[in-house]
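Subject: Predicted fold for PLP-dependent aminotransferase family protein, 409 residues

User T.R. writes:
Posting the sequence so we have a shared reference for the thread.
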Amino acid sequence: MSVDSSSLGPSLRLSSRMAGVRSSAIRDLLTFTARPEVISLAGGLPAVELVPRGRIAQAARRALGDPHSVQYGETSGWAPLRETVASRESEAVGRRVAPAEVVVTHGSQQALSLLAQVLLDPGDTVVVEEPGYTGALQVFRAAQAAVVPVALDANGMDTAVLEQALREGLRPKVVHTVSNFHNPRGVVLSAQRREHLASLADRYGFWIIEDDPYGELWFDAPPPAPVATHSDRVLRLSSGSKTVAPALRIGWLHGDRRVCEAVELLKQGADLCGSSLTQRIATELLDDRTWLDSHLAAIRGAYSARSHALVGALESVFGERISHTPVFGGMFCWIEFADGCDATSLLARAIEHDVAYVPGGAFGVADAHSHAARLCFATYGGEVLVEGVNRLRQAYDAHIRTPWSVTGH
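User M.O. replies:
I've generated the structure tokens; pasting them so everyone works from the same file.
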């Protein structure tokens, strides 16, 4: 869905930037998947039973003991939380990150939106991955940027293709990458390509936005060192939504102090400040390393088992009718129908069979990815995932026998 301001009449005309903004197909699906009988493999929803509600309640009680926890706070975030994030990110990137180089945001999506406003003028070029993260595509289109895709393969963004385009005159202001357990493809940017991408940023002078909400959700081995390890032209984003609780709405960015100061300035006009209460809760949880390590280990174990259940069911039920990317972490599995089945038209049949997914076209920039789909394995246990795949196969069989159009029978 996109917004057409011309249809609203002369009394209400929206800004020109709204012309390129489309609603997220994932959010649109929520209308259909809200029914309890639907097994939704669509949304990237963490498992609610793994959210540490008891531990959050303890931290909330302690936070509420201080009256300042219900007061306005600093725009850049509660100072102890910025110190905690700076310490964690220093360990991740292998160099000291100062608290002044950290801004706490209302989820990492707000960080991405504010960075786009700080860095981009209309018409500036942004390089994204193909297929790309829908939230990033929305942000960059709203900023009226020229979005240029670079294809992914099993090792992440093909930086050799990017380098060739740069040699031929491409001059991006920003390159965006979901480096770990990519959304939607699930791939990991290789160590060699991380170094290569960083060297290209240094040589050609663009900013890298390293979007990393999934990096701690590895199964067998952690991913390579962040891109930010290799260049100071990297602005790194992360979040507590996938590891602690989405409802806390705690995200952050760190990078060049001048960029952080500009982000803070715009944030004053966006929301003035975040939640003092949830930032204090998050600080206690992120500071409790013993508890956090145990909690992350439990999430990794559960998600690993669920990914095996989903992939095993796909291979058993569909066989060679689909291919899928290997799953090493994160929350998603990307599949492609070998027979050319259109995933968008199949979705209507799938919803009739009480199962849902996100068609690949939702993530496309130059490629429609019409035969692909993204499945989330994090939300449900193994038995439900197997049933979801069985329903998908039933929908697929019905669709092949009597294909639907996108709009109906």
